[in-house]
Amino acid sequence: MIEKEKQYFEQFGETIQDEHGGLYTADGVWLLLAPIGRHKTYRIKEGTQVIASHSFAGKSESDITFNPSDIEEVEVPDSVVYLEGYAFEQCQDLKSIKLSQSIRVIPFYCFWRCLSLESIVIPKKVSIIEAGAFMWCKSLRTVYLPNSVWEIEEGAFTSCESLEKIIVPHGTKDRFVAMLDEESARFVVEEDVIN
Asked: In this structure, how many other beta carbons lie within 10 angstroms of the beta carbon of residue 188?
């Protein structure tokens, strides 16, 4: 058993794996580790409620982290209500993700250094995007923000070098510009928002 799995065993007790190798708590409520290798698309199990910190950063042995580098697409079921900070950190080949419509917060550094992520649709119940949530997403071109977002913390979109548009609902541009840093605010446009 590798170090991170030992740590989870101590914290949660028995764990189970899905058919792809994803590691969950025995009750299926927490996704602890995404599968490594073999999968371009990963569908998180229905019934999962929490995606644990660093679960997509890979397994850790002797403090060396291995990224699940071939995961390009992730589908998060609506049963997921909570993402921990750093949940998708350095999932470097992740190009797209369909987030749960039940989450209310995009936590700190959740997608930090997801270097291949191209666009993100923020679910319509999200009210806060925390600090550094999408920092260093170098391929991120388009962000869709719903009217429900009332706080965007410092550095949420810092160093997103390819950013072209932060799309917000009609009549809300000034509110979103006021929430964003100067670097990001210049990309805000009003269009129909996908949800």
From this structure: 21
